[in-house]
């Protein structure tokens, strides 16, 4: 009996078992079994998803380490403690903690998503929100308005609000009332924000830096030529060996691999740059002969080891005792900004992945167990905050596993198991330098820009607010301010044009007003409103079975349509 025969036998055994029926595998006998969904295919798809998104372990740890976490800076002359020995040793420990935390919450969230919702969608800390938390909420090395403990409390609270909104059915309505072009611009703006981070020194290749005369200028000089006050390059611009290594291998080579559709292209780029940076006594080493370099190298030599979370585990300020009036406003802003971005991110990703899998109901626009999927995502947010991580979300990289044939939750569960295994290789993931992940951040930003074509450029009342949104995010270094600016611009422009049109009875409407995107705060149809609103209105069908996902929304043919 050959390998193919053994494989077919294994697939038949699993399909005929309780596992096969629960996940609706092909041949399970379930009324809504998914044609073509086979056990070994799901495993392969899960591995593909993992290798596509495993870069998040190093990237998320690198970005969140810049917040300083629970490390305390006591240098009165330098509030960022850039050259403080004790503080930098603390950051090394925090980075290791975050490697463990990222892998742990990705394992937990992906497994929970797969087993509860039966969707092939993996979960991990969200790119963009991690940068928002690190650089805007907590600030670089703790220089922001909120300390790390309060920020983790904000993430914890946001997760539970998300659960409540999911159970009430409000999440769809909230996502719907945001103008479509601003939704698209939000993703593109976050992409530009990530690109800016990928080009910086702290979490990227170091190609740009600040300056006294201009907001940004060319960087790329070795660290000894950086101005300690402004961070600008005093000389030797674009001569840093690490910058060129990150650019050519982590950026250009990875882009070429992506062009040829090589799965795991980002992992290849990150791995190669890291391997080149590990030998000591080179100009590109990540282990220089210093206190920090020696500490990194000693941990790296363990290779296989589990690093327990020591500094960031359950560090929430449960009583919010450190909050005053100003910080309270920042806390509320942080909670609702992360909540809004999570709603948009999770909604867009889950719907696009569900549509890619062929499980979206063409009549309702919903997919099976959608409420459970959102709750799984929200639960992971709160659990992740206990690990010390920024909010998690469904990952668009799950599409690579779906492309490989993944159709059920077994794909996400396999990805979760892979992340669990990675917990025992913490010394490797903690030794990935920022110039190795900078290229990945830039390329992720590039992919997030693709949605710009969906902005309605035909009508200024839609396109200008969208542009303001995506422009303000990187230039103000804040996702929150970008959203606020875009929504305010939209409200002013469209309220004035509406008022002029109403007063003049349509004579003063813009000539291209017909090109305006439709927008309304009301639901398009009564059946798409939250169930409790339908109940208040006296709708006899205020409760629908899909509100708690007790039946499948699709037939087997729709489920297997690609």
Give an account of the 3D structure.
This is Purine transporter. It comes from Macroventuria anomochaeta. This protein has 562 residues and is mostly helical. The protein contains 22 helices and 4 strands. The protein has a two-stranded antiparallel ribbon with strand order 1-4. A two-stranded antiparallel sheet has the order 2-3. The longest helix is centred in the N-terminal third of the chain and has 33 residues, at 85-117.
Separation, N- and C-terminal Cα atoms: 33 Å
The best one-word shape is globular
Number of H- or I-type helical stretches: 22
Radius of gyration: 24 Å
- What is the number of E strands? 4
Output the strand order for the largest sheet.
1-4
Spans of at least 5 consecutive residues with low confidence: 523-527, 540-562
- Beta fraction: under 5%
**Mean pLDDT across residues:** 84
**What are the secondary-structure elements, in order, as H or E?**
HHHHHEHHHHEEHHHHHEHHHHHHHH
Could you describe the largest sheet, including whether it forms a barrel? 2 strands, antiparallel
As a percent range, the share of helical residues equals 55-70%
Q: What kind of assembly state do the chains in view correspond to?
A: single chain
Global structural class: mainly alpha
Keywords:
562 residues; mainly alpha; 22 helices; 4 strands
Entry summary:
By secondary structure, this protein is an all-alpha fold.
Helices and strands in order:
Elements: H1 3-15, H2 18-22, H3 39-53, H4 55-65, H5 85-117, E1 123-125, H6 129-137, H7 148-168, H8 170-177, H9 180-199, E2 208-209, E3 217-218, H10 241-259, H11 265-277, H12 291-300, H13 325-357, H14 370-387, E4 392-394, H15 398-403, H16 409-422, H17 426-429, H18 434-448, H19 460-475, H20 479-503, H21 531-536, H22 556-559
Antiparallel strand pairs: 1-4, 2-3
Helix pairs in contact: 3-16, 4-5, 4-6, 4-18, 5-12, 5-14, 5-16, 7-13, 7-14, 8-13, 9-18, 9-19, 9-20, 10-11, 10-18, 11-18, 19-20
């Amino acid at each position: 009996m050959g390998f193919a025969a053994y494989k077919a036998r294994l697939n038949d055994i699993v399909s005929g078992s309780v596992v096969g029926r629960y996940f609706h595998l092909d041949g399970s006998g379930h009324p809504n079994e998914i044609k073509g969904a086979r056990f070994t295919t799901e495993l392969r798809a899960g591995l593909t998803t993992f290798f596509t998104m495993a870069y998040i372990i190093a990237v998320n740890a690198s970005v969140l380490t810049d917040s300083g976490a629970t490390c305390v800076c006591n240098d009165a002359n330098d509030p960022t403690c850039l050259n403080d020995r004790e503080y930098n040793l603390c950051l090394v420990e925090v980075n290791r903690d975050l490697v463990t935390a990222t892998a742990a919450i990705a394992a937990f969230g992906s497994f929970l998503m797969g087993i509860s919702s039966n969707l092939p969608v993996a979960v991990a800390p969200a790119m963009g929100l991690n940068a928002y938390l690190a650089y805007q909420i907590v600030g670089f090395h703790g220089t922001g308005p909120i300390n790390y403990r309060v920020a983790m409390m904000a993430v914890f609270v946001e997760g539970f609000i998300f659960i409540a909104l999911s159970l009430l059915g409000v999440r769809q309505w909230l996502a719907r009332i945001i103008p479509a072009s601003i939704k698209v611009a939000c993703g593109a703006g976050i992409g530009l924000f990530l690109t800016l981070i990928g080009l910086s020194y702290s979490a990227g290749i170091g190609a740009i830096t600040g300056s006294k005369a201009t907001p940004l200028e060319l960087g790329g000089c070795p660290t000894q030529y950086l101005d300690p006050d402004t961070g600008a390059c005093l000389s030797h611009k674009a001569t840093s060996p690490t910058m060129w290594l990150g650019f050519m291998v982590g950026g250009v080579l990875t882009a070429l691999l992506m062009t040829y559709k090589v799965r795991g292209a980002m992992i290849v780029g990150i791995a190669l740059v890291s391997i080149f940076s590990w030998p000591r006594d080179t100009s590109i080493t990540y282990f220089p002969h210093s206190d920090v370099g020696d500490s990194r190298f000693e941990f790296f030599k363990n290779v296989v080891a589990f690093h327990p979370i020591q500094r960031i585990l359950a560090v929430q300020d449960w009583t919010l005792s450190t909050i005053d009036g100003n910080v309270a406003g920042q806390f509320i802003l942080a909670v609702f900004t992360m909540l809004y971005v999570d709603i948009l991110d999770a909604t867009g990703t889950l719907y696009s992945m569900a549509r890619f899998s062929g499980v979206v109901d063409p009549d309702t626009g919903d997919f099976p167990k959608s409420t459970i999927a959102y709750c799984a995502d929200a639960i992971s947010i709160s659990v992740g905050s206990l690990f010390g991580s920024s909010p998690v979300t469904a990952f668009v990289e799950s599409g690579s596993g779906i492309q490989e044939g993944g159709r059920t939750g077994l794909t996400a569960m396999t990805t979760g198991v892979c992340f669990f295994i990675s917990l025992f290789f913490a010394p490797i993931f903690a030794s990935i330098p920022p110039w190795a992940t900078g290229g990945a951040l830039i390329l992720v930003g590039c992919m997030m820009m693709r949605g710009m074509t969906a902005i309605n450029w035909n009508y200024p009342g839609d396109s200008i607010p969208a542009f303001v949104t995506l422009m303000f995010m990187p230039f103000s270094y804040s996702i929150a301010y970008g959203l606020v600016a875009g929504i305010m611009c939209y409200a002013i422009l469209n309220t004035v044009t509406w008022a002029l049109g109403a007063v003049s009875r349509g004579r003063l409407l813009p000539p291209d007003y017909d090109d305006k995107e439709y927008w309304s705060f009301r639901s398009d149809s009564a059946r798409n409103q939250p169930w409790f609103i339908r109940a208040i209105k006296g709708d006899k069908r205020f409760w629908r079975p899909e509100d708690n996902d007790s039946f499948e929304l699709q037939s087997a043919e729709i489920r297997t349509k690609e």
